[in-house]
Design a protein that fits this description.
2 helices, single chain, mainly alpha
């Protein structure tokens, strides 16, 4: 039983080393990188616009102003 375990571990190490050598030499294709999703542009709402907010404050402070 101990001999079987030793052979199994030795076989596993040999397979691991072979795979590593193949990867380094380019014999095995590397995993393709996942395509990244484009980030959506930040949404701009009226309350994000400084000019809009300034205009609201002006209208709130001067309700009789025609513009």
């Amino acid at each position: 039983m101990l001999r079987f375990l030793f052979v199994l571990v030795l076989f596993g190490v040999a397979i691991y080393l072979l795979v590593r050598v193949f990867q380094e030499r380019g014999m095995m294709p590397e995993r393709p990188a996942r395509p990244q999703r484009p980030t959506p542009p930040p949404s701009i709402a009226p309350d994000d616009d400084e000019d809009f907010l300034r205009d609201l404050d002006r209208k709130r402070l001067n309700p009789e102003d025609p513009d």
